[in-house]
Amino acid sequence: MAKVTAGITTSHVPLLGRIVDTKQTQTEEWSPVFSGYEFTKKWIAEEKPDVVILVYNDHASAFDMKLIPTFAIGCAEEFPPADEGFGARPVPNVIGHPDLAWHIVQSVIEQDFDLTIVNEMAVDHGLTVPLSMCFGQPDAWPCKVIPVMVNTVVYPAPSGRRCLALGKALRKAVESFDENLNVQVWGTGGMSHQLIGERAGIINREWDTRFLDKFEKDYEELAQIPQSEYIRETGTEGSETVMWLIMRGALGENAREIHRHYHIPVSNTALGHLVYTCD
Ligand code: DHB
Ligand code: FE
Predict the structure, then answer these.
(1) How much distance in Å is there from the Cα of 202 to the middle of ligand 1?
(2) d(CA 100, ligand 1 centre) in Å
(3) Three-class SS of residue 192?
(4) Which residues contact 278 (CB under 8 A, 6 or more apart)?
(5) Does pTM top 0.85 for this prediction?
(6) CA 112 to ligand 1 center in whole angstroms
(7) Which residue lies with its CA nearest to atom 1 of ligand 1?
(8) Nearest to residue 75, comparing CAs of 99, 106, 50, 47?
(9) Which helix (H) or strand (E) holds 79?
(10) Which of 55, 154, 267 to mutate to test the pocket of ligand 1 (most atoms within 8 A of CB)?
(11) CA 209, CA 152: separation in Å to the nearest integer?
């Protein structure tokens, strides 16, 4: 059977993609940010996941005001990088796992989650930057990736409670797939950030740190935090952090933190990154 073995959470700041693409990760300015991913890169090269279920939010690249699914899953064979205004990033296409993706759709609908099925989709920095942070610049990504897209851009966005429950449903879905697969679940976005408006640049280190501290054992408590608190305390885009709860739900009760990295500022945001293993 397939098994969820581990997961990571990470911010997906687009500037970091640009830094990778232009080979500036080892400069004095950027090495303190990228050094926090050295552990992860070595670890994941040994873990060799077959599939990553990568939870992210689209930033008006594949979806716009015409169509806004709350939760969507990529069931295609392949997903190209999106052109976000400066041409597509020079990264490989993402190769999906249609059989597992369709199985997940079937399994979670039986658990009362109705995912929007997407068969053609370009993936933006929300998905490609985390891949670059953990895998560098390979000719092909070393595993299959199932994109799970969450609307955190247009309100109303889903609650932490709903995200945690979706994560738990994803775990059951994976563990009922009849093929031996090593599956990781990643949650991306966050932490504190607001990109425009009077509060642009808000960073709430205390709030972010408390979230990181409670993520391992007190995640049910974190799931009660309303969207309005993320926005008030960490900025409008800080609410992306809610997606980490999907990863946490998917890793089960006995998940353990094995690595943490928090760096401020990156662009004008707070970068958070965790690596977790689970039974
Ligand atoms: C930025 C954009 C993001 O989507 C994000 O999550 C963090 C930072 C930015 O433009 O700086
Ligand atoms: Fe974002």
Answers:
(1) 13
(2) 30
(3) coil
(4) 4, 5, 6, 7, 251, 252, 254, 255, 256
(5) yes
(6) 32
(7) 13
(8) 99
(9) strand 78-79
(10) 267
(11) 21
Q: What six digits make up the tokens of 77?
A: 């064979």
* Residue that the structure tokens 């552990």 belong to: 39
Q: Is the peptide bond before 265 cis (omega within 30 degrees of 0)?
A: yes
Q: At 237, is the pLDDT very low, low, confident or very high (cuts 50, 70, 90)? A: very high
pLDDT tens-digit series, residues 55-93: 999 999 999 999 999 999 999 999 999 999 999 999 999
**What residue ranges define each of the domains in the chain, with the CATH number in brackets?**
3-267 (3.40.830.10)
Amino acid at 57: N
Ligand 1 site, CB within 6 A: 12-15, 59, 189, 193, 195, 237, 240, 267, 269
Report d(CA 66, CA 64) in Å as an integer.
5
Tokens (6 digits) for 168: 């738990």
Q: Which two tokens stand for residue 10?
A: 């990470």
Map residue 195 onto helix, strand or coil.
Answer: coil
To test the pocket of ligand 1, the residue of 15, 269, 273 to mutate (highest count of ligand atoms within 8 Å of its CB) is: 269
Tell me the per-residue pLDDT of 200-216, one tens digit each, with 9 for 90 and over.
999 999 999 999 999 99
Six token digits for residue 59: 């930033």
List residues with catalytic annotation.
Answer: 125, 193
